[in-house]
Amino acid sequence: MQKTELFTARTEGYFNYRVPGILCTTNGVILATVEARTGTGSDWDGNDILLRRSLDGGLSWQPTQLIVSHQTYGPGPVSNFVLFADSDGRVHALYCHNYARVFYLASGNDGATFSPPVEITDSLTAFRAEYPWCVIATGPGHGIQLRNGLLLVPVWMSDGSGTEFGASKLGHRPSEVATIFSDDGGASWQCGEIFVHSDGRIINPSEALAVELDDGRVLCNIRSESPQHRRLVAVSPDGAQGWNEPAFDDALLEPVCMGSLLRLRQPNGEGRGVYVFANPDNLEKDLTPPKWAVAYDRKRLTVKMSRDDCATWSVSRVLEEGPSGYSDLAEAPDGSVLCVYERGMLSRMTDAASVTVARFARAWLSAEA
Fold first, then answer.
1. Residues 136-175, buried b or exposed e (16+ Cβ, 10 A)?
2. Strand bridging mode 118-119 / 144-145
3. Which helix (H) or strand (E) holds 365?
4. Using CA of residue 18, residue 31, residue 333, residue 207, what is the dihedral sign?
5. Among residues 92, 116, 113, which one has the least CA distance to residue 25?
6. What is the spatial distance between Cα 364 and Cα 369, in angstroms, rounded to a whole number?
7. What is the mean predicted confidence (pLDDT) over 129-152?
8. pLDDT (tens digit, 9 = 90+) per residue, 209-248?
9. Which conformational region is residue 148 in: left (phi greater than 0), alpha (psi within -120 to 50 degrees), or beta?
10. Fewest CB atoms within 10 A around its CB: which of 135, 165, 194, 304?
C-alpha cells in the first residue's frame, strides 16, 4: 500500500481540491484530475480543472497542469471532468460549465496536451422532450468504452427548482439520471434513456458510474438520497436503452456521496470479470453538526470486490478510516489498483484536506497478502 498526496488544500491559490478522477490510458499513462476550487470551495465558486500525470503506474507524479480555466467561460465553475481511454490510444474528456453547458476535448499524447474544447450542449437538448432540465452534469469519475467501441458516461439533470444553494443559484434537486454516448470516437454525442427518476420511491438520484458486464450488458451504480440509504443499481442491454427497474443493493451503504466503480482488466481464474467499488461505507454522523448539509459522515472509505457481475461483494477492506469522500478507481499497467480520493476534513465535511491517491495490489484487497 502506497498513499501519495497529489493536491493539498489552501495551496497554489485555491481554497481546496475536490471531485477527483483517475484514468489509465491505453498506453499505460495514469491521469489524475481535480476540481481546484476558489472562494470557499463551493460547487458554484470559480473552479478550474487541474491534472497530474504518472509515467510509472502511479509511483511518482509529474507537476500540475491547468487543463480548463473557468475564466475562459465567464462566471461560474467548470466541473465534473470525465476522462475516457480509447482503444486507439486517444483520451477523450467531457466537462461542464456552470452546470448548464457541456464541452468535449481530446488528447492524442496521453494527456500531455488537449485539443481546443468543443461545446456539445445542443446534443443534449433532446432530453428536454422528457425532462425540462436547467442543470446538467457529467459523471463524475471516469467514462467507459464498451467492447463495441461506444463511449459511454452517465449524466444527471435537474430542473433547478431546489433552493439548497440559495435564491441566486439553480438547485441540483430534484434530479434524474441518464446516459450519453458517442459511436464515432467523440465526434458527436447522443442521448440515452432517462432511467432513474425522482419518483417518491427514489429521491434525487444523481452521480453515477457504469461498467460493462461479462455478457456485454451495462450496469450503472447510482447515488441517491432515498431513505433506504443503499446504492441504486440498474442494468441495460446496451447502456443506452431498455434499462430495468433500478434496485437498491443491500450490501452497499449510501451516506449520500459519490461512489466509484471499475471493471479490472485481468479476469478471475474462471475468466469472469472482477469489479471493484469504493465509497464511504458509513451510516454514522459523529463528525458533522446536524445543520450541515450531508446525510452522514463521509468517512471509512472502503473498497469492495465482486466476481459475479456486481451481484454480491465478497471482499471488503477499509482504505481510509477517517474522513474520506469522493473517489475514483483505475488499474495500473502492472495490475495494481489506484484509488484517488478526498482525504481529511478541514472546516466542514465537504472541505477536504487533500486529494490523495492510494496504490495497492489486488492481493491487499483480497486479504491474500
1. bbbbbbbbbbbeeebbbbbbbbbbbebeebeeebbbbbbb
2. unpaired
3. helix 362-365
4. positive
5. 92
6. 5
7. 97
8. 999 999 999 999 999 999 999 999 999 999 999 999 999 9
9. alpha
10. 165
Q: How far apart are CA 219 and CA 242, in angstroms?
A: 12
Residue 326 sits at the vertex; the CA angle it makes with 325 and 332, to the nearest 5 degrees, is: 120
Residue 190 cell numbers, joined: 447522443
SS3 7: strand
Sheet of 48-54: strand order equals 16-24, 30-37, 48-54, 65-68
Which residues neighbour 255 within 8 Å (Cβ) at sequence distance 6 or greater? 229, 279, 280, 282, 283, 294, 295, 296, 297, 298
**Tell me, what's the pLDDT at 292?**
60
Pick the closest to residue 327 from 118, 47, 103, 140 (CA basis). Answer: 140
**What are the backbone dihedrals phi and psi of residue 80, each rounded to the nearest 5 degrees, phi first?**
50, 50
Q: Which CATH number fits domain 2-365: 2.120.10.10, 3.20.20.10, 3.60.15.10, 3.30.420.10?
A: 2.120.10.10
Cis amide linkage into residue 205, ω under 30° from 0: no
**pLDDT over threshold 80, residue 345:** yes
β-partners of residue 18 are 35
Backbone angles phi, psi at 44, to 5 degrees: -100, 5
Q: What is the pTM of this model?
A: 0.96
* Residue with cell string 451481484: 311
Q: DSSP class of residue 363?
A: H
One-letter identity of residue 309: D
pLDDT at 369: 38
- Which pLDDT value is given to residue 293? 60
pLDDT at 163: 83
